[in-house]
Predict the 3D structure of the following.
Amino acid sequence: QVQLVQSGAEVKKPGASVKVSCKASGYTFTGYFMHWVRQAPGQGLEWMGWINPNSGGTHYAQKFQGRVTMTRDTSISTAYMEVSRLRSDDTAVYYCARAQLYGSSWYFDYWGQGTLVTVSS
Amino acid sequence: DIQLTQSPSFLSASVGDRVTITCRASQGISSYLAWYQQIPGKAPKLLIYAASTLQSGVPSRFSGSGSGTEFTLTINSLQPEDIATYFCQQLYSYPPITFGPGTKVDIK
């Protein structure tokens, strides 16, 4: 069965960086794009970008360009998402999500359990 | 960017009721819409894509309809396990990927 298992909660100070991992199993890791979506406390869903695990190619939402880096390690079927120069408004649950291409966009058929990142001085 | 609105933002209904949630797009998106359910404290779960196609394993009491700018998610016979927030997502235009603000469903 498809599973996406994310790393544990993090507490970081403003200005620091955080790297979240997402280990995939139950399917061919390189066969599906992986997206990242975040959710601030009590708020809606905000798309951050994607990585193509096959090529390593990435695309980031404009808001996050220059501050977010997505990478992968195909040998262990794991995707990573790093946010630098953290601010208090980056406090959120970060999700990885396997994407299914539909038309010119994607929907997300499997999600990780989420990783809470708290930014506080 | 395509904007999505949802109504109502909150609803309370009784077990067994039929519940309808509406998602409206700021421009026509054909049938390029998905619906997700997010139970409190859990990750979102895909319910429907292509406006009306039920994802495998999702109970048949969930259904989706609509095209263009107005879409509905219907829960026939609301169950206690359906307490959740429901989000729509447009699949028509990329980038960016956008979601609706959510509709919280509670049991009376």
User: Anything to note?
Assistant: Chain B touches chain A through 26 residues (CB under 8 Å). The mean pLDDT of chain B is 96. Chain B is about 0% helix and 50% strand.
